[in-house]
Amino acid sequence: MKKIDTLSFEELEQELVSLGEPKFKAKQLFDWIHNKTVDNFNEINNVSKKTKEILSQQYEFTSALIEQKLESKLDETKKYIIKFEDGNVVEGVYLKYKYGNTACISSQVGCKMGCYFCASTKNGFVRNLTASEMLKQIYIMQKDINEKISNVVIMGSGEPLNNYDNVIRFLKIINDEKGQNISMRKITLSTCGIVPNIYKLADENLPITLAISLHAATQEKREEILPVSKKYKLPELMSACDYYLNSTGRRLTFEYIMIKDFNDSILDAQNLSNLLKNKLCNVNLIPCNYVKESNISPSTNINIEKFKKILLEQGVNVTIRRELGSDINAACGQLRNNYLKI
Ligand code: SAH
């Protein structure tokens, strides 16, 4: 059976026409699916029974439910384990920032990138998520908090640029003004650096924010923790970033997780400044999360501040990521790993 909630508005129109139904019904249906976020045809009540019957012979809704939820006692962060109909689970996180309600969503079940410090990859790769499975993570959080999500970051498990078509489909549906109408400017896609798809994404010309998981400023060091950089080397990644900048005019974000005694020295800060000086970008310094399977600990606050100062002196924009939900701060993917063990 096909999934109704993975169709774009235009596809839904075409589908109705091909089933002998009037095109205008697409607007009502799209509203039920993507604003009222219903889970089945029965809940839809201003569309004729006949239309619903015709559709339900070929289409069904994507099923997703909250399998587990952790709520921070320190702030309003909530972490969810979301289960799909094949039994696979992913993590989603709700974060309340001053600028808006943010959903951090996953793009794949597991991940094949093998980054040394990341818990999402420790159990390998299972499968890509469909566009509707990405949408559902947001719809589920919205229902649970009973407020609208205004910002989305694709920074949960998975490498979004390795699930390119589904991610683009997701972006177009979540941005559709007849649906959730979340502005592209409020969406951030984070990648470890799949170079050919950075070029492809640049050519889509979507005003989203691209975040690059840089984490080290030299090829040598990057290779130690991000296996992907053996395939796509730092100079190639930087050229792709320049192409992205020049074609979209959008400021890039570089994420830099700070790992004690690995990438947090003065020399590391100088290398990073030299790499990014004169580029339209923000650097986001992130104290790394402890991951059981990786032998890493976060840099001290003093070192992070020193590091920041060096970047600022070189004219590089830099912020330190504020930690939310630190009491439930199982690192990215850790919650799912614990769930899988049980
Ligand atoms: N695959 C994409 C998106 C998922 S990871 C990417 O690599 O960007 C989202 C972010 O969390 C990345 O910047 C990733 O490097 C970071 N991350 C992973 N493990 C982490 C850890 N232990 N501590 C801090 N950040 C981590």
Element-by-element helix/strand order: EHHHEEEEEEEHEHEHEHHHEHEHEH
Profile the largest sheet. Answer: 10 strands, mixed
Oligomeric description of these chains: single chain
* CATH domain topology of the largest domain: TIM Barrel
Give the overall shape. Answer: globular
In the predicted model, the low-confidence regions spanning at least 5 consecutive residues are none
CATH superfamily of the largest domain: Aldolase class I
Q: Total helix count?
A: 12
CATH architecture of the largest domain: Alpha-Beta Barrel
Roughly how much helix do the residues carry, as a percent range?
25-40%
Topology:
Elements: E1 2-3, H1 9-18, H2 25-34, H3 49-58, E2 59-60, E3 64-71, E4 78-84, E5 89-97, E6 100-104, E7 108-110, E8 125-128, H4 131-145, E9 151-154, H5 164-175, E10 187-191, H6 195-204, E11 209-213, H7 219-225, H8 228-231, H9 234-248, E12 252-258, H10 266-276, E13 281-287, H11 301-313, E14 317-320, H12 334-341
Parallel strand pairs: 1-2, 6-9, 9-10, 10-11, 11-12, 12-13, 13-14
Antiparallel strand pairs: 3-4, 4-5, 5-6, 7-8
Helix pairs in contact: 1-2, 4-5, 6-9, 10-11
The structure holds S-adenosyl-L-homocysteine.
